[in-house]
Amino acid sequence: MNAKCKKFLTMLLLVCVSIGAAGCSAYSNQRYYERAQLMMGSGEYAEAAELFHQLGEYEDSAEYTLYAAALDALQRGKIELARANLLEIAPFKSADRYLRYLDALDAENEGELDSALDIYVSLGSFEDCAERAQTLEAAIPEQAIRQGRQMMSQGDYEGARDLFLSLNGYGQSRALSDACTAAIARKAYLAAEDLLGAGDYLGAMNAFAAMGDTLDAAHRAEECRSLLLKQAEEAFQAKRRMRWMNSSNRFRRTRRLRKFGRRWRRNSA
Fold first, then answer.
1. What's the CA gap between 101 and 80, in Å, rounded?
2. DSSP 29-58
3. H or E element, residue 231
4. E-only strand ranges, the chain
5. What is the pLDDT along the chain (269 residues), one digit of tens a residue?
6. Burial of 248 from C-beta contacts in 10 A (0-12 / 13-18 / 19+)
7. Which of 53, 183, 204, 263 has its CA 20 to 30 A from that of 154?
């Protein structure tokens, strides 16, 4: 049956429902209800919604009117209209599952692929959830690679490396993780060099030592240790000279006092 025939039949049924016993007594409300159910099953949601609407309060026609209208809106990509109708009738039929499905679609459209995947997986074989989940399982690692590269460009090598490591060797993730490790080492090396340049030998030694065998950090740590020992020796010698000078000054002051005392005694005699 082509689309024109289907539309004509639907219109005929609507007219019959409207005039009831006045001209179409052959069709009972039950038969119209069953026809609307068949339209639902074949995906003719707009026509089913119209027919259920004409049936008024018969059975659960009022709920089916909104349910069919919601599925028609979803079919036409009108997500918010579908959501509004489903919220009016939940938990009628599969309204709750459709609402979760709409949440997954929103999450996917906003780039929250992990959240969308979780919902699709939880919905199992409902609608096209299985296919969408499979698509996202392939798309999520690629999104993570792009996100990691962006983090690298912003200097967040630690965060990018953690992200790449979470991908368990997918694609270029291992090579990118190694690149992040090298960048982190260079950053730490330069920071240690700054400490060394500022004369903070202890801080520089600890910074180089924390890098292990990366670059020539172990050698630089030993250099800092030597400078630190030299600095300590110089400080010790300076303190020793200061003590000697203080001692010498006290000795000279004592001699002067003694001389002054002898002169005073002679003058007093």
1. 12
2. HHHHHHHHHHHHHTT-HHHHHHHHHHTTTS
3. helix 217-268
4. none
5. 455 445 544 554 554 545 443 444 335 899 999 999 999 999 999 999 999 999 999 999 999 999 999 999 999 999 999 999 999 999 999 999 999 999 999 999 998 999 999 999 999 999 999 999 999 998 999 989 999 999 999 999 999 999 999 988 888 999 999 999 989 988 988 988 898 888 888 887 888 888 877 778 888 888 888 888 887 777 777 777 777 776 666 656 666 666 655 666 666 65
6. exposed
7. 204
Whole-angstrom distance, CA of residue 153 vs CA of residue 147: 10
Type of residue numbered 202: L
User: With contact defined as beta carbons under 8 Å apart, do 263 and 237 qualify?
Assistant: no
Structure token pair of residue 15 = 């007219």
CA–CA distance, 15 with 255 (Å, rounded to integer) = 134
* Distance between CA atoms of residues 30 and 16, nearest Å: 13
